[in-house]
Amino acid sequence: MSKYDYDMDIVAMKKMELASMYAPELTPHAAVNRLMRWVAYHPKLTDELRKTGYRKMSKLLSPKQVELIVEYLGEP
Fold it and tell me: 4-34: per-residue pLDDT in tens?
């Protein structure tokens, strides 16, 4: 259970799906690129994601990884 209260469901999802939630005006590929730039901007987030088993080429995000991204970037 999350220590935060989110309006969105924190579930496993494709990276492209989450990225498109943050940037619906972009193509899915461009949205992923933007999301990954935002993640890279936060070294602590990048480190915490790595600790969960995240790799740059990961296509699927676990609920914990989604939660970390939302915690640092805010809800989409």
Answer: 566 788 899 999 999 999 999 999 999 999 9
In the 8-state DSSP scheme, what is residue 4?
S
DSSP string, 6-73: -SS----EEHHHHHHHH-TTS-HHHHHHHHHHHHHH-HHHHHHHHHTT--TT--EE-HHHHHHHHHHH
Residue 68 has pLDDT above 90, yes or no: yes
* Domain locations in the chain as residue ranges: 13-73
Distance CA 76, CA 36 (A): 14
- Residue entry with tokens 């914990």: 64
Report which DSSP code applies to 3: S
Around 33, how many Cα atoms within 13 Å sit in the side-chain half-sphere? Answer: 5
- Classify strands 60-61 and 13-14 as parallel, antiparallel or unpaired: antiparallel
